[in-house]
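Contributing new records

If you add data, match the layout below exactly. Sequence lines come first and carry their own label; structure lines follow with theirs. Keep one chain per record. Anything else will be rejected by the validation script.
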Amino acid sequence: MKGIILAGGAGSRLYPMTRVMTKQLQSVYDKPMIYYPLSILMLGGIKDILLITTPDDQPLFKKLLGDGSQFGIKLSYVIQEKPTGLPDAFVLGEKFIGDDNVCLILGDNMFYGDLDFLRLAIKEQEEKKNGLHGRVFAYYVADPTAYGVVEFDKGTKKVKSIEEKPKQPKSNYAVPGLYLFDNTVAARAKAVKPSARGETEIVDLILSYHNEGKLGVEMMYRGLAWLDTGTPRSLLDAAAFIGAIEERQGLKVACLEEIAFRMKFITLEQLQKITSELPKCSYRSYLEKIITEETI
C-alpha cells in the first residue's frame, strides 16, 4: 500500500492567509496542518508516500519534511500546476502507484481516534476481500450538503447511490477525504470527464468502482473525530479541538517523531538523535519525556 497526500489547490477560502503560503502549511494548534494527514498514513503502516504540491510551495514542504528519512519513511514530491479535481492526484501519481494499491488523503483532512478501522480496511484492500477493489468511508454529519453523500439501503445497508454536494441529501453520511483504491485508479481517473464547474469529481471516480460492484463503503464509528480545515471557522475549530485534547491528556496529536518510534519505523537511538537537534521548545520537551520513559 502506497500513500498520496493531495496538498495542492488554491486555498481561496482561507485568503488572505494563503496568499503567501498554502493552507496545508498553516498551523493547526502547535503543528503545520500537513502533519495531521501524514500522521494518519504513518499510523496506517504506510511508509512510501507521494506529496502533491503547488509549484511555489514545494520548496517549503521539502524544507519542512525532507525525504522523510528522519521518520523512517520515503517521501516523494510532484507538482500540480493547477487544481483540476481530486482524481488528478491519481493521474499525477500514476508512475508512483505502479502495480500497488494506494491510499489518498486530502491535505486538509484530520482524523482523531482509534484507527483500527483504517488498518483493517488497508488489509482487506490488499487482499481484495469480497472482490472489492476500492474503499471509501462514511461519516455522519449534521449538514452533508458540502460533501459527497452516501445513500444506504435501509434493509441490506448496501450502497444505493453516491452524490456530490446534493442540495437535498438522501442521508447524513458524508464521504471524508480518505480513499483506498487498486492500481486501476489512474486509468479510471483519466476517463473521468470534467463536471459543469470545470473540474473532475472524485464521486465520478468512486462510481466507476460502484457500478462494477467493486466498491466497499466502511462506516466510521461515532467516537472518531473527522475535521475538515478548509475554512477559517473550521481551522479555528480544529485548533481548539487539538489544543483541548493535548492539554487534557498531556499527549501530542500527530507528533511524527513519536509515531515513527511507536510504529518501529525508527529506533530509540534515532529518536534521541533527532530530538537532540531540535531547538529548545515544548515539542522537544515532549519528545525528551518519551525518551526518558523508554530508558527508565
